[in-house]
Every structure is written in C-alpha cells, then in structure tokens.
Amino acid sequence: MANRAGRVYPASMDEAADVRCPYCGEQSTIAIDPGEEEAEFVQDCPVCCRPWTVRVRFRSDGSADVTVGADGE
Ligand SMILES: [Zn+2]
Question: Could you report the per-residue pLDDT of 17-70, keeping only the tens digit for each?
C-alpha cells in the first residue's frame, strides 16, 4: 500500500489529525491520544484562539475519525 503524499506512520495508530477550524477556516494539525478509543475534549484554535469541541474516534484499522465543532454546537 502506498502512503498518501509520502506520509509515514511510525505506529499503527494515528497520533495527529488535520482539522479545519469552524470559526476561521484555517487548517491545523492537532495531537490526538491513541490510548483512548473515543475521546472528546476542548482545545483552542492555534490561529484564532476560539474553543473547539474535538471528538476523536479510532477505527479498527487505527486511523482516527476526528471532528471539530464550535463550542455549544
Ligand atoms: Zn480558528
């Protein structure tokens, strides 16, 4: 299997995810914790500093399904 855009995963679980800010629309890479199958936490956007509600779910193949919502959504 070819790596997309030459990206190399050192572990079988994703440890970072690309997300798009629901406020300013900027794309950022956030760190995620492969130790938990499902997680939800609040993190401030590194660009506009507004709070995201981040939901992480790991699929059985180790890839992460990450959604970012505006707080209170
Ligand atoms: Zn932002």
Answer: 999 999 999 999 999 988 888 999 999 999 999 999 999 999 989 999 999 999
- The answer to the question of residue 3 being in a domain is no
* CA 4–ligand 1 middle distance (angstroms): 26
Domain containing residue 65: 11-70
Domain count, the chain: 1
Cα 22 to averaged position of ligand 1 atoms, centre (Å): 7
Residues 66, 47 contacting (CB under 8 angstroms): no
3-state secondary structure of 6: helix
Q: How far is the CA of 59 from the centre of ligand 1 (A)?
A: 27
Q: What is the pTM of this model?
A: 0.76
Ion ligand 1: residues, CB within 5 A, are 21, 23-24, 45, 47-48
In a domain, 6, yes or no: no
Question: Which residue has 């919502």 as its token pair?
Answer: 69
